[in-house]
Amino acid sequence: MATRVIEESDVGAQVREEVRAWLEENHDEDRPLREWRQMLLDSGYGIPTFPKDWYGRGYSGGVARVVAEEFKRAGAWGLAGGMARSLASPTIVEHGDDEQRRRFIPPALLGDETWCQLFSEPGAGSDLAGVTTSAALHGDEFIINGQKVWTSGATSDTDYGMLVCRTDWDVPKHQGISWIAFPMKQPGVEIRPLKQMTGGAGFNEVFITDARAPAENVIGGVNQGWRVTTTTLAHERAGGVVVGLDEFTARRDGHQPADPRREQYRLLAQMPKMSDIAKEYGRNTDPVYRQEIVKHYILGEVTRLTMERGRVERKAGRPGPEGSTLKIQRNHVARLQRLLAPSMMGPAALLVGQDAPYKGAIPMQVLSSCGPMIFAGTDEIQHNIIAERILGLPKEPAIDIDVPFREVRTSGRRPT
Length: 416
Ligand SMILES: Cc1cc2nc3c(=O)[nH]c(=O)nc-3n(C[C@H](O)[C@H](O)[C@H](O)COP(=O)(O)OP(=O)(O)OC[C@H]3O[C@@H](n4cnc5c(N)ncnc54)[C@H](O)[C@@H]3O)c2cc1C
Hints:
There is one protein chain. Residues about 1-10 and about 250-255 have low confidence and may be disordered. Helices cover about 45% and strands about 10% of the residues. The chain is built from 14 helices and 8 strands. It starts with a helix and ends in a 26-residue tail after the last helix. By secondary structure, the chain is α+β, with helices and mostly antiparallel strands. The longest helix is centred in the C-terminal third of the chain and has 29 residues, at about 285-315. The strands form 2 sheets. Strands 1-4-5-8 form a 4-stranded mixed beta sheet. The chain has a 4-stranded antiparallel beta sheet with strand order 2-3-7-6, with no helix packed on it. Helix 2 packs parallel to helix 4 and helix 11 packs across helix 12 (about 360-370). Flavin-adenine dinucleotide binds near residues 125 and 126. The site of flavin-adenine dinucleotide has 16 residues, from helix 13 and helix 14.
C-alpha cells in the first residue's frame, strides 16, 4: 500500500497525463517503425531516464515506469532493444564525450546499428579485470588481438562490440584497461557460434586478429576503461526500465534484427503458473506439492516486493542492499521452479515442440535457468559483493592488484 502511495506521486500523475496526451496525438499504428522511433528519440520518452540533453527526460526510475505503463496500455512500440539500448547507450551517455554520444546513441536506439558485449575471455570471466585481449595504438588507430567468449547474440549483422581490452601492461590490472566501441564488420573478426544444451546457439567465441578500431572510439579515456566497464555491468545487473514493445515481443515492418535467442525468449514467455501445472497434472491435492507451490509463490512475491521496496528506497535517496540480493533471490525462485514443474509433470516435462505441454516451455526453463546464475556476475561473486560491501566482512585476499599486470601469471595471452 505504502508503495502505491509513493509511486503515484504528484509528479507521476502529471507525467501520466502528459504521456497520455502525447500518445493520443502522435501514436499511429500505421506509422513506419523507423519514423516512430525517431519521434520517440526526439521526444525523450523512448528512454526517459536519460538526461534531457541526451535523448531522455531526466526522469527517475519510478517516473519512467509510469511512462512505460502508458506505452504498454497504448500498445506502442519502443526504441530498438537489445544490448544497444540496455548496455551500450547508457554507458556512452555516462562516459562518452558529446561527439561520441551524437555518433553512437541515435543509430543504436533507432535500430540502425546493433551491439554485442565483448567482455569475457577464456581466462577472464569473474576476474574481468584480468582481460588479455590487447589493443596497441598505431597512429590514430588501435590494432587489436585476442579472444572473447560467451558473446551473446553476436552475428555477422552485429555492427559494434563493447570491447574491454588491455592498453597498458605495465600498470596494475585495473589501471591498464580501455572500453572501445569496436567495429565488428571487418577482416580479422571471426565469430564462431557455441551450441548449447537448449539446442540454440545464443553465444559465440569471437577471435580477433589484427583488427582495427579508430582511437576516437575509446569511451571514457585510454586506460580509464574499468570505471566504464563497471557502469555497463551495473546496467546489466539492474535490468533498467523498458518503455514500449520491443523486438522480442512481436514483429513489425520486418524491422527485426536477427537474434538467435528469440526462440528461447518466446518459449519462456509461455511458462505457466505452478498452480496451473498442479491442477492439470492432478497434483493440487497432494500436500507435499501444495507446500512447494506455496513456497515458490512466497519466494516469488518476496522477490517482487523486495524489488518494489528497493525502488521506493532509491527514489527516497536511501539506496539499500536490495540491488545485490535481488539477482540471487530471482535465481532461488528459478532453481525451485526447475525442480518443481518437471516433478509434477513426470515424463511429459521432457517433451519439446509445438505439440508438447506448454509448447515446450518447461524443458527450456530447466535448461536455460542456469544462465542468469552466471551472467553479469555469478551467484558466488554476488555473495562476495554482499559479504564485503554490505556485511563489511574482510575482503578476499588478492595478490595481483598492486603489481604491473605484465608480471601477473594468467592463462591468457601475453603482449608481443
Ligand atoms: C547466459 C549468459 C550470457 C552471457 N553473455 C555474455 C556476453 O554477452 N558477453 C560477455 O562478455 N560475457 C557473457 N557471458 C559470460 C559471463 O559474464 C561469464 O560466464 C561470467 O562472468 C563467469 O565467468 P566464467 O564463465 O569465466 O567463470 P569463472 O570466472 O571461471 O568462474 C568459474 C566458477 O568459479 C567461481 N568463482 C570465480 N571466482 C570466484 C571468487 N572470487 N569467489 C568465489 N567463487 C568464484 C564462479 O562463481 C564459477 O562458479 C554470459 C554468460 C551467460 C551464462
